[in-house]
Structure formats: C-alpha cells, structure tokens
Amino acid sequence: MTSVPALHAEAVPADPSVMRWVFGNDLPACGRLVDAPGMLGKMIEPGGLIVRAVAERRALWTWLAQPSWATDGVAVREAVYDAAARLNDWRIEPAPDDVLALVAADVIDRTLERFIASHGGEIALIKACHNEVDVQLGGACKHCPVSGMTLHGRIAHEIRERTGEEICVKAVTEGRRRREPWRLGSSER
Amino acid sequence: MSCHDDSSSAATLAGMRRIALLGNPNAGKSTLFNALSGLNAKVANYPGVTVSKTIGSLKVAGHNLLLEDLPGCYSLEAISPDEQVVADTLDIGSVDRPDGLLVVMDATSLERSLGLLAQAQQLGLPIMAVLTFSDELLRRSGSLDPVRLASAVGVPVMSVTQGNRVQLDELKHALTKLDNWSVPVIPPPADDGPHLRSWIASVLDAAGYQPPADDQRTQRIDSILLHPVVGTVIFILTMIVFFQVIFIVAAPLQDAIETFFGWLAGLVRAKIGIDWLAALIADGVIGGAGSVLVFLPQIGLLFAMIALLESTGYMSRVAFLMDRVMGYIGLEGRAFVAMLSSLACAVPGIMSTRTLPSSRDRIATMMTAPLMTCSARLPVYTILIAMLVPQDARVGFLGLQGLVMFGMYLLGAAGTMAAAWVFKRLLGGKGPALPFYMEMPSYRLPKLGEIVRAIWEACAGFVRRVGGIILVLSMAMWALLSLPLISSEQMVSAGVDVADEVAVATYQIDHSAAAAVGKAVQPVFEPLGFDWRITVGLIGAMGAREVFVATLGQISSAEDPENPGVDLGQMVWLSGPHEGEPLFTAPATVALLVYFAFALQCTSTIAILRKESGSWKWPLIAFGYMTALAWITAFIAKLVVGAVIG
Q1: CB B28 within 8 A of CB B42
Q2: Which of A42, A76, A94 is the last residue of a domain?
C-alpha cells in the first residue's frame, strides 16, 4: 500500500521555466535527480520534457526547456505525484553546489525577502559554493548591529534546513557582479 | 437610472465586470458580500429554478463591479440543488459565468475550504482567496501565514476580518485589478482522491497552518446547552421567554399604532364628503390593511429574536439538539433548519430545502414546513388568544397569553413532525445516508447591525406584503361586504329601523355579496362553530392569513362605525338557530386557532411549492391534506373544549 506524501507545486517568480515541488517529508537525498519511477523517470531522460531536476531536502526543482507549464504542467504534476508514492526508487546524485546555489538564492530573494525589506535592509547574494555563501549587505543592514543575527540566524538556519548541509554565511564588503544561480546551474550542465 | 427595458439593463450588466463569491456555508460569504456591496443588493432568481440569486454592485475608484453571492456549497460536484446552481453558473458555457471568483475561506476550517478552492482553480477563472475569521483563529491559538499560503496556492490571498475597514478597502481595490491577479501555473489536482488530499496537506503545511484549538469558552457553554436534558430544558425556557417578550414589549407599540389608525379613520370619515369613498378608505383600506399593520411591532420583534439567536450561534445548537428528534421521524438536521426558517415564513423554509440532497427528504420537508407557525399566523393568533385569555391572566410570573402563544408554536412544530413522519413512511422509508455537515460556529456576541438589518428587512417585507396582496384582498372583501347597496325603502319593507345605524349596517352586511358566498359555504364550517362571517374571513384568508384579521376588522367597523375597535368577543350570531348567541365562544375560538395552525392559507406558499417541486401535484396534495387536517383537528378541539367547559 503506497500513499502520496504531502506535495504541492509552487512557481518560482524569477524564472518561469522552473517549478518547485514542495514535499511534506524529506526526499531520499539532495542533489541531481537522475532516475525516478514511472513517467517522471521518462521525463528526466535526456531529450525528455524536463531538462533539469534538482532535489533539495524537501523540494524538487524541475526545469522545462521553455516556460510551457500551462500546457505541460498537468502531465508533469501527475508524473511527480505518482513518483512521490515511491520515493525509495528515486536515484539522486550528490551535487552540493547546485543545491546550495538554488537554495541560497531562493532563501535570500524570496523566502526572507519580505522580512529583510520590512527592516529597510537589502541583502544580495554574491556567491554560493563549497558550503559557503557570500552576501553583500545594503540599505539598513550595512551598519546594523544585529545584521549578524539575520545572516547567521535566519539565513544560515534556513539554508541548513533546506540543504541538510553545514554551511556558513558571510558578508563581503566589495560587491562583485551578481550571477543568477539557476543560470549558473544550467550553464554548468 | 431606468429599469424599464430589460435589454438596456442587460446591456449595462454586460458592460460591467462580474465577480462571484464562492464559499462553504457559514464561511462568512454573505457578511463579506454585504460589506462589499452595502445596501445595493437585490435578489433575483436563477433561470429555471427558484434558488435565489443575490446580486450587488460596487463602485471603487471609478470602476463599476457586479458582485454575485453564490449559494454556499462544499463542492462543485453537485449533490444538492444549491450546488447544482453554483456548478451551472460557473460552467464554461454559462451566460452568467463571472469574470472572476472570490473564494471565501474560513481560516478556522481551512482544510475544507481548500478542497473547494482546488476545484475552483480548475475553472480557468481569475481567483482571489479571502480569509475570514482570522481573528478567531488567533484567539483560539491557531496560526496561518497568508503570504506563504498565497505562494502555495498560487493565487492572491487577502485576510478580511469582520468590521475591519482597512482590509475591506484593500480588498475593494484589489477587485478592480482582476486582470493582474496571479494565476497558478499548474492547477492543483482535480479529482477528490489521494492527490488532492496530498495537495491540501502540503499547502496547509507550507502555510504554517496550526488548526484552532477547541474553543474553551464555546466548549464550556456547549457542555450545558447541548446537554440532552439541561439543554432541552434551556431551549424550552428560551422559547417561552421569546414569546413573552414578543407580547409584553409589543403591546404598547401596538396600542399606539391602533390609536393612530383609529384617529386616521375618524379623520377620513370627517373630512371626505363622499360617503362611499370615505367608507372605502376608512373601512376598506384603514380598517383592512391598517388592522394588519398593527402587528408590525410583533413581526419586527419576532425577527429580532430570531436574528439574535442566529448571530450568537445558538440557532445551530438548536438544530443540533433537534437532530436527535429529527432522527426519530427519519429526517436529518438540515430538514430542521428548513423548519426553523419556516417560523418566519414557509417560503424561505421551503427554499432552504434545496440544501437537502435526498429528494425524498426534500419533498417530506417541503410538504410539512408550511405547518410550522409562520409570522402570518401571528396576527390571527394574537387576536384570537386575546379573546380567549384575559390580558392580565398569569401563571406564576408568566403571562398566560404568551404561554398560549408558545403552545400554538409547539402545536405547529408537533404537527410538522408528525406529518413529516407520515410523509417519510409514505414516500418509502429511509434512503441512502448522504454526507451531512452541520456548522457549529463558536459563540459570538450578537452584532447590532445584523439585528437591525433583520428587523428592517422583516418590517419592510411585511409592509410591502400589506400594501400588496393583503390590501388587494381586503379591498375586495370590503367591496363584497358592502355590495349590493340596499336602499332605505328595501330596509323599511324588511322591517329594519332605518334610524338605528347599527341595525342598518348589520342588515346591509347580512345581505351583501360576501354574505351570500359565506352563507353558501357556511354548512362546511358550521360543525366547527363558525358563522358566515368567520367563513367569509376564512375564504379571504385562503389568499393570505392576515386577511382574516382585516376582514373581521372591516365587519366590526362597518357594523358599528361609532366604535370600530369593538371587541370581537361581543359579536353574536346574526341569524339561524344560534341567533343572538355569542359567536366567539371558547370552543369556537379554540377550533379557529387550531384551524389556522394547520390550514394552508397562503398563495405564496402554494406558488413556491409549485416552483420547487416542479409540478402542481405536490401543492395540490399539500392543500388537500392540510385543509382536511385543519378541519378534523378543529372539530375535535371544539368537542374537547366544549366537553371540558361543560
């Protein structure tokens, strides 16, 4: 008897070709999804509908070649729900930098954006690799005595929660050009 | 603004964006609708069925919007006629399909609301979710993050708590930006199955939803009010107080109105030179419709009390208490809700049977709801009880008039239950058990605005009714009672003393067209102790019960123009074997009370039965069985009271 774990889809506002499937329990591992049961497995094969699939601790990121979710979304949804009932058959290869880049950007730009902005602060992601996240502080954060709490408390905590890795976040003074982490990810592929 | 031409108003409607409100029953949908549309709501009917459709308009920042309050439903897969209407309206091919949907979700029962939201998201319409009762969720130590909920469901979510103007204004402005509402890229799973359940669980989790703890206060109150014995006793006591209030508080107001109409009639008689016109206005209009308007305070109070019980949350406890009783007769709690609504009027009661999924239950409820004591019976009961029981008679500290009135309501309820039991048996026993939710809202302090609104609507409706069918019928009764005119010569030749105004008026009425009809029908009612005047009153009352009061008012004011408010208790038989004997004896009055309790005397009820059941068969059966029941029970009542008094 298999049951479907809690699961829903959330769009990623910054990139219309991505869909984030949020799970109620842990996926078998974090990293690149290379094989899955049922239709999802077929979709992630080379030349399939899904061009890239990355798992964080409780979410699966899927990319289409074009942002064609309106037409292909329901089919992918069915495939993900079916596969979710057999999580043990998922094969995930570790890709810590991919996962960290995705999650760090998502946490800073989406999850905590409102919280940071509500204090008049700005935090920009500079780099995320090798378990290290570099950010640049702006706005009210620059001289804020408790910005460290935000970095180490909220941001680092949230990223650790979602990647399952011991990471550290540090503020860098001079900004380098920001690179979109998911573009970075897809160019590496 | 002109409403004369249907096509032009249709064109105006076509130019406006329509937004429909969808939600579970009791999710706060109608409250939100009223808050958004103010007093600009009007009620119409959905084509083909008599499910009422409430449309309102809203003007924000130069945008005109049309709002539609859809009937409350748990699912878009229709099981009840109400849900069918919602499904049809939202169907792709529907001409009434709105441009956008507001899905109203009760934050304290979010799980059920999400199921409906998921179904609504399959429709391809712009959707905004409105969270209601967030304040109650917090009070009962639950929690929810609307922002995370919005990203999980993919549509905008706004929290609007009752009475919060700022949130309401934000919502109004958001309504004008319909085209910018976010749309989920992938709709949630459609079918009610594991995928949907998984989606709902996941969304609740993502939104950080903590369901509300059981409301301590509500639980404590419920442990008393829902107790099988204590709760029932409290319910009966509440009802007794209910009717005491209606009598005691209304009395001075009614006296004032009565005095006013007496003064007005006197003024009309004095100032209008043309005799027949003065008589038409003073006796026909004021004596007829005016004598019914006297009951305005009681109607207002009745509805105020019902609104009070409803807004505190006690009414649904009553339905719950009665669910057990309803079980014995084979009906469910929802049927009792229809019967409770019938306390106001059988028409909304019959209409509310649309929430019953089983057609057998629906027919049994529709056929018996008119036996419940509706507000139209109130004037008749009041007048008859006043003749039967002296105003200052008391049992302990309770007024006896109020107690007898309570007894009449009990009689109506008992009659309804018994008839429902019979109908359920005749229609073929129990059907399959269908899902049944009954909302048990937390106890809340009553909202003054809601009560004022209920009083206003009831009084306005009553005045409209008096100005419409009751006025027309009572004018017709006046004409029948006054025509043909009998000349003085005819009177003299009949041996009437033309100098005695009372004798002339009595002779005139006794030889009127109405008398001819009344006397022809009288043999039917004579065994009940009714003379032709009561018979005429009963015939008039077949259109609307209040006409009975109007007719008696006309007869008494015409028979004694000097003292139109003469006590009906003084009336005597005009002719026949009982000539000179008092008309309203205790047995005859009780028989009349019982007759009114059970007879179907209401054109509106017959019309709604015809519409809701789809044929003339059921209204005919209802009319037949209720009339027979009324006659037989009235006859028995007369015999019993006669035997007791000796």
Answers
A1: no
A2: A94
A52 forms bridges with which residues in the sheet?
A: A63
The answer as to whether A1 is a domain residue is no
Q: Would the CB atoms of A9 and B205 count as touching at under 8 Å?
A: no
Q: Which two tokens stand for residue B233?
A: 């006793």
pLDDT value at residue A79: 92
Domain that holds residue B262: 230-426
Which of B109, B611, B28 minimizes the C-alpha distance to B354? B611
The predicted model gives B582-591 an average pLDDT of: 85
For B554, phi then psi, to 5°, come to -65, -45
Contacts of B152 in chain A (CB under 8 A): 8, 10, 22
B185–A11: do the CB atoms touch at under 8 Å? yes
Selected residue of A1, A2, A3, A10 to mutate for chain B interface (largest B Cβ count, 10 A) = A10
B569 CB-near residues (< 8 Å, 6+ apart): B387, B582, B584
CA distance B380 to B412: 14
SS3 A22: strand
What's A162's domain CATH number? 3.30.300.130
Are B161 and B281 in a shared domain? Answer: no
- A50-56 and A59-64 beta bridge pairing: antiparallel
pLDDT digits (tens, 9 = 90+) for B94-103: 777 888 999 9
B254, B295 Cβ separation under 8 angstroms: yes
- Residue whose token pair is 């003469």: B566
Cross-sheet strand order for the sheet of A50-56: A7-11, A18-23, A59-64, A50-56, A31-35, A91-93
Q: Domain span at residue A75?
A: 7-94
Distance CA A71, CA B185 (A): 9
The alpha-carbon gap from A70 to the nearest alpha carbon of chain B, in Å, equals 6
| Contact call for B198 and A9, based on CB within 8 A | no
Which regions of chain A are under pLDDT 50?
1, 175, 177-189
For B186, list phi and psi in degrees, rounded to 5.
-120, 125
The three-point CA angle A51-A55-A61 to 5° equals 50
Of A5, A8, A84, the CB nearest to B188: A8
Measured CA to CA, the distance from residue A29 to residue A53 in angstroms comes to 13
- A31 with A103, same domain: the answer is no
Q: Convert the pLDDT of each residue in B258-316 to its tens digit.
A: 788 888 888 888 888 777 788 778 777 777 777 677 778 877 887 788 778 877 878 77
Contact B185 A9 (CB under 8 A): yes
The answer to whether residues A56 and A35 belong to one domain is yes
Span A9-61, pLDDT tens digits: 988 888 889 999 999 889 999 999 999 999 999 999 988 899 999 999 999 99
- State whether B185 and A69 contact (CB < 8 Å): yes
- Nearest to residue B443, comparing CAs of B139, B163, B35? B139
Cβ atoms of B386 and B434 closer than 8 Å: no
Using CA atoms, how far apart are residues A87 and A91, in angstroms rounded to an integer? 9
Q: What letter would DSSP give residue A105?
A: H
ipTM of the complex model: 0.81
Give the best residue of B185, B199, B204 to mutate against chain A (max A CB count within 10 A).
Answer: B185
Residue A91 belongs to what H/E stretch?
strand A91-93
Confidence (pTM)? 0.64
- Chain B residue with minimal CA distance to A67? B185
Q: Are residues A82 and A113 in the same domain?
A: no
Domain containing residue A60: CATH number? 3.30.1370
Select from A51, A76, A94 the last residue of a domain.
Answer: A94
Top residue of B195, B197, B200, B204 to mutate, by most chain A CBs within 10 Å, is B195
Q: What is the rounded CA–CA span in Å between residue A183 and residue A17?
A: 11
For chain B, the C-alpha Rg in angstroms (whole number) is: 28
Q: Are residues B415 and B351 in the same domain?
A: yes
